[in-house]
């Protein structure tokens, strides 16, 4: 009985070599993962600086001077924030961690006299200790705030990695098309035009996304700080920073940032708690229907559910830095997928024709 030709598996020397090369490339990428993350971070920062560089160049600034000015302003701004903003922030954070559980000692969320459902639940809900929950949150906050200096050292993988990121991103920003030149160096000639074109489109979206995300966090942070300050909620600065940072996570981020503010409001009075809850709902609606569609969704075009998935993957693989790199990398993948779909559509039309 002759074997079916369709069932014959042909393994050539070329196939074996290509397989070994792929395995070797994956292994090399794993061992050099820290360096790859540094390189990706440098590319993202350079891409984020590109729109600002172009804006200054329109005002007759030489590219080198424009990049230097941008980096000086960025470094000065971060230094000023660390000097003037971070100390009071962590003073409030430490105070919040120490006083938050005590503020709920006299706050019984499930008081049978106030809860008409207690007769139905049979006291099951009353067994939930809100104080214990807040105590666990306190432990987490103290752990994070106590490790501030350690976190600063490990945020970018250490001081050496941080310096390397700054130097590489500066070099890529100074070069007119630094990343493009690198891609031309490592890409086969047959794919060079497509790869550089893909990067040019992705770089534009990454830069616009970074600008949009910073603007979104700034707007929400300022709104939350002003609103909570007017309502008289304690620790408005900490809660505003939390709201700004959690904007990185669609849907769940704003909800998570609202929980401690609402709890603090209810711990003071029922009226204040309802006002804080209503305020966060208004801010959320304002963001969903106006800010986010204008500054993020239309620029990048990535569905929010994809953003959530890639953020969790990035956090799992590389921590905070992985989260920051997740959406820019997803932008490149989405551009690649879009090109693939277009090619499939053209192939089908050609085949049918």
From TrEMBL:
Membrane-spanning ranges: 7-29, 35-52, 64-86, 146-172, 209-228, 262-283, 295-314, 320-338
Keyword annotations from UniProtKB, A to Z: Cell membrane, Membrane, Transmembrane, Transmembrane helix, Transport
Keyword presence, Transmembrane helix: yes
Cellular compartments annotated: Cell membrane
Membrane-related topology note: Multi-pass membrane protein
GO BP of this protein: transmembrane transport
GO cellular component, one term: plasma membrane
Taxonomic superkingdom: Bacteria
ATP-binding found in the keyword field: no
Family: Belongs to the autoinducer-2 exporter (AI-2E) (TC 2.A.86) family.
PANTHER family: PERMEASE PERM-RELATED (PTHR21716:SF53), TRANSMEMBRANE PROTEIN (PTHR21716)
Name of the protein in question: AI-2E family transporter
Native source organism of the sequence: Candidatus Vogelbacteria bacterium GWA1_51_14
